[in-house]
């Protein structure tokens, strides 16, 4: 819009001087602060660390367990023994000691491939953690975008009301001058003052909305909610979004869809682990032990030994009260449920993409319409003000032109914000929202 009346230029300069005293919070800085401070992202990062820590072959049951063992048994007994030849031997407080210690190994070498399914499930759980972290990051970036551009919108509307007050002050001054020379009635002055007060009231309400929007953004950034700042004056719109590209991107990058796909894979691995219960389990055992025993009474009063032992144990399931069949049926139903939820998620995602894209296209057209309306209303207001000063139009006609300009400014600001909301929503659904 090339047409810019002098009084609007003055109010823009005044607004710029006022905001320059505050910190300018750029969008990229807001995103950076949110990603560093946000509690949900920190929690998601910690959950991912837990998943990474759990994802190793030992947790899947692939490694042996090695233990150091020691057993020491001591007794003090009043003992009486009768030998084969009838001889009796008796000893009070007879001491007996048995000591054994060593290292043992226990290794399950086959469990129906359950350990391999468990390891794959751990891989999936780690990927789910990564998807959940990405979702937390995308969601928070989206929250920052929406809150930031809401502030831009509120700031633009506040500027429009500041302009309205400048114009209303000019109208009051003109009406008083006309009244002083007898070309206007006192009623005209009073009406101008009433309209000025109405504009001031709207300005105060808009200031309240603007300050509350700042508090909301500070909360999202997880910093002191009283931190004062200003935002950029323009809402930039990406007008080149392509639906097919968004759809293709969402199928491979949407974190909610990916998380549900991983949930289905996890259910399938759980079914494999349950089916492993039909197969034998083979364990290898081994160890090296030392033994020592002492007895106060008997043929052998002391003995000791050391050596290597080894063996295996196999378990073959035959019947367990039909628990195996029941567990497999439940696991299959869980896989089916995960598949249904995945298909539902795909349908919901496609629906959201289509509706948001249609709204995005409509609002792009509305931007053109409202931009033209604002330019016309601005020119009309400037002409009306000139005519009002020389008394060729009525105060009601002037007020109508003034109100039309403010309404056009607010509508233009609103449509920019709505378009930005749909743009952000589309990029978030596509999984590629970033700065």
Descriptive notes:
GO terms for molecular function: efflux transmembrane transporter activity; porin activity. With 435 residues, the chain is α+β, with helices and mostly antiparallel strands. The chain has nine helices and four strands. A four-stranded antiparallel beta sheet has the order 1-2-3-4, with no helix packed on it. Helix 3 (39-54) packs antiparallel against helix 4 and helix 7 packs antiparallel against helix 8 (323-389). The model has no long low-confidence stretch (mean pLDDT 89).
Short summary:
The chain has 435 residues and is of the alpha+beta class. It has helices at 6-20, 27-37, 39-54, 114-180, 186-220, 243-253, 255-275, 323-389, 395-430; strands spanning 65-82, 88-110, 281-295, 302-315. It folds into 2 domains: 6-37 and 113-278 and 320-430, Outer membrane efflux proteins (OEP) (Up-down Bundle); 63-110 and 280-316.
Strand content: 15-25%
> Which homologous superfamily in CATH is the superfamily of the largest domain?
Outer membrane efflux proteins (OEP)
Distance between the termini: 28 Å
Output the radius of gyration: 40 Å
CATH class of the largest domain: Mainly Alpha
Distinct helical segment count:
9
The name of the CATH architecture of the largest domain is: Up-down Bundle
Q: Which features characterize this protein?
A:
single chain, 435 residues, alpha+beta, Outer membrane efflux proteins (OEP), 2 domains, four-stranded antiparallel β-sheet, 9 helices, 64% helix, Outer membrane protein TolC
């Amino acid at each position: 819009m090339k047409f810019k009346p002098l009084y609007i230029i003055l109010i823009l300069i005044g607004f710029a001087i006022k905001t320059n005293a505050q910190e300018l919070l750029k969008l990229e800085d807001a995103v950076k602060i949110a990603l560093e401070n946000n509690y949900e992202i920190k929690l998601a990062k910690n959950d991912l660390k837990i998943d990474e820590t759990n994802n190793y072959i030992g947790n899947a049951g692939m490694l042996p367990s090695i233990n150091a063992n020691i057993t020491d048994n001591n007794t003090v007994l009043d003992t009486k023994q009768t030998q084969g030849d009838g001889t009796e031997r008796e000893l009070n407080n007879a001491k007996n000691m048995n000591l054994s210690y060593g290292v043992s190994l226990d290794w399950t070498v086959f469990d129906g491939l359950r350990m391999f399914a468990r390891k794959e499930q751990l891989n999936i759980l780690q990927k789910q953690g990564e998807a959940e972290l990405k979702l937390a990051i995308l969601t928070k970036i989206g929250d920052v975008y929406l809150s930031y551009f809401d502030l831009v919108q509120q700031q633009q509307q506040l500027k429009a009301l500041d302009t309205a007050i400048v114009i209303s002050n000019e109208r009051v001054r003109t009406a008083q001058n006309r009244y002083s020379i007898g070309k206007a009635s006192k009623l005209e002055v009073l009406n101008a003052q009433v309209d000025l007060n109405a504009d001031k009231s709207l300005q105060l309400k808009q200031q309240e909305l603007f300050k509350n929007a700042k508090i909301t953004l500070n909360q999202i950034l997880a910093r002191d909610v009283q931190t004062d700042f200003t935002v950029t004056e323009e809402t930039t719109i990406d007008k080149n979004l392509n639906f097919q590209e968004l759809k293709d991107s969402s199928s491979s990058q949407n974190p909610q869809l990916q998380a549900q796909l991983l949930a289905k894979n996890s259910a399938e691995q759980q079914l494999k682990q349950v089916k492993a219960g039909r197969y034998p389990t083979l364990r290898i055992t081994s160890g090296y032990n030392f033994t020592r025993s002492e007895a106060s009474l008997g043929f052998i009063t002391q003995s000791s030994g050391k050596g290597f032992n080894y063996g295996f144990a196999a378990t073959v399931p035959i019947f367990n009260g039909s628990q195996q069949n029941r567990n497999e049926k439940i696991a299959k139903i869980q896989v089916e449920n995960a598949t249904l939820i995945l298909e539902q998620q795909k349908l919901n995602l496609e629906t959201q993409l289509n509706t948001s894209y249609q709204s995005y296209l409509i609002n792009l057209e509305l931007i053109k319409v409202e931009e033209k309306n604002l330019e016309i209303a601005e020119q009309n207001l400037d002409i009306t003000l000139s005519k009002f000063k020389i008394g060729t139009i009525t105060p009601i006609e002037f007020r109508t032109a003034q109100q039309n300009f403010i309404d056009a400014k607010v509508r233009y600001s609103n449509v920019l914000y709505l378009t930005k909301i749909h743009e952000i929503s589309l990029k978030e659904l596509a999984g590629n929202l970033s700065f």
